[in-house]
Amino acid sequence: MIKLIIGKKGSGKTKKLVEMVNAAADVSLGNVVCIEKGDVLTFSVTHKARLVDSCDFNVNGYGEYYGLLAGMKAGNNDITHIFGDATLRIGGRNYDELADFLERISKIEDVEFTFTLSCDAEELPKKVFDFAVKI
């Protein structure tokens, strides 16, 4: 399942994501991962979750972002949740590529994905919601 937290800058997306990461880390029987761009969440995310800065791996674009996520899951099958903040800053603002990325991600089994998107839901192509739900 893929969940999207959608809203303009300053609407509280990251705060909601952090709350969800911390809640998932408290109840998950596996591992929880949070991807960010930069190191802004260091003191907000619980130590029980793995915090990954996409800049450390020079991730640019949805192809590389997919590779990072799929590689994490391949290397650690105990991952139950993956959260991604600043998705459009990591992957880019091409919404058709975003839809393709979400379609590929939807095929990764046994992981619940949640991403923040800094835009209006109306800007996104309908195809995005074939693979993800807005929360």
Number of helices: 5
The number of strands is 6
Radius of gyration, whole Å: 14 Å
Side by side, the strands of the main sheet go: 3-2-4-5-1-6
pLDDT averaged over residues: 94
Sheet with the most strands? 6 strands, parallel
Q: How helix-rich are the residues, as a percent range?
A: 25-40%
Between the first and last Cα atoms, what is the distance in angstroms?
Answer: 12 Å
Q: Helices and strands: which structural class?
A: alpha/beta
Describe the structure.
Helix content is 36%, strand content 23%. The protein has helices at residues 13-27, 62-75, 87-91, 95-105, 128-131, and strands at 2-7, 31-36, 50-53, 79-84, 112-118, 133-134. It has a six-stranded parallel beta sheet, sandwiched between helices. 33% of the residues are buried. The model has no long low-confidence stretch (mean pLDDT 94). The protein starts with a strand and ends with a strand. The protein has 135 residues and is of the alpha/beta class. It is built from five helices and six strands; from the N terminus they run βαββαβααβαβ. The longest helix is centred in the N-terminal third of the chain and has 15 residues, at 13-27.
Task: List key phrases describing it.
36% helix, 135 residues, six-stranded parallel sheet, globular, alpha/beta
The gist of it:
The chain is an alpha/beta fold.
Describe the SSE topology.
Elements: E1 2-7, H1 13-27, E2 31-36, E3 50-53, H2 62-75, E4 79-84, H3 87-91, H4 95-105, E5 112-118, H5 128-131, E6 133-134
Parallel strand pairs: 1-5, 1-6, 2-3, 2-4, 4-5
